[in-house]
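Ticket #4471: structure export looks truncated?
Reporter: QA, pipeline team
Priority: medium

Steps to reproduce: submit the single chain below to the structure queue and open the exported record.
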Amino acid sequence: MNATTLALPSWTAEVQSFINKTAFYTPIVWQAFKKTLAPVIIDSLKGTVLYLIEREHIWKQWTLNMAGITHNPLQASISADLR
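Actual output as written to the record:
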């Protein structure tokens, strides 16, 4: 079958136009995202991670206090070093 005699559906021109627009606008949108939204998202994630780490420390301390265990990291490191 000869490719020149193949009749393509009418929507293929629209698809090709969409692909061309996507290829043109994707780098523009990506650069705008990197300059505006990406730093905000990164700062928010950093804050969330730090908050979760702090909360984990608080829960750990609360659990140790409830069990009656007092843990002093400085004293523990010195006693471990002297052994």
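Status: closed, not a bug. The export was complete when the record was re-opened. Leaving a note from the reviewer for reference: The mean pLDDT is 83.
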